Amino acid sequence: MNKKQLTKVLGGAEKLCRKRGARLTARRRTVLELLCASDKPLSAYEILDRMRATTRNPAPPTVYRALDFLLEQGLIHKLESLHAFVGCTHPEHPHSSQFLICGDCGEVSEMENEAILQSLQTAERATGFKTRHPVVELLGTCAQCAEKHQSG
Ligand SMILES: [Zn+2]
Ligand SMILES: [Zn+2]
After folding, report:
1. Is residue 48 part of a domain?
2. Do residues 56 and 127 both lie within one domain?
3. What spacing in Å lies between the alpha carbon of 139 and ligand 2's midpoint?
4. Single residue among 87, 113, 140 that ends a domain in this structure
5. What is the pLDDT of residues 51-73, one digit of tens each?
6. Are 19 and 68 in a shared domain?
7. Which residues surround ligand 1, an ion (CB under 5 A)?
8. What pTM does this model have?
9. 55 C-alpha to center of ligand 2: Å?
């Protein structure tokens, strides 16, 4: 996400937290900013590593707690297959997402497809399975990388 989007997302996150009576502390905001500014998902370890640039001795537990808070508030998503986190671009409403993960360049895009959600709900009803995190992760090649493969 570019600088302008980043400012918008961070501003939105602050407003959202204030409305809910949750506190977006400086530490939490930094973690969110790192995730949103990165064009790739970041693991907790990578976040910690990047925080070292600005914070002296950031403690792992504080980063994990910040991540938990941001997940709870729906400001970020966790990608189970990569053990990594991404910033959410539309946290104003609760949603289930699908993630398109490119194995070549590592880029991840989030999409919300109503038809996929409905299919999942139908499958849930049929199997009696209760989904806690209805997150779908699709691993593959993004359009840009696919094009490069073709021309190369
Ligand atoms: Zn999202
Ligand atoms: Zn790619």
Report:
1. yes
2. no
3. 11
4. 87
5. 998 888 888 999 999 999 999 99
6. yes
7. 88, 97
8. 0.86
9. 32
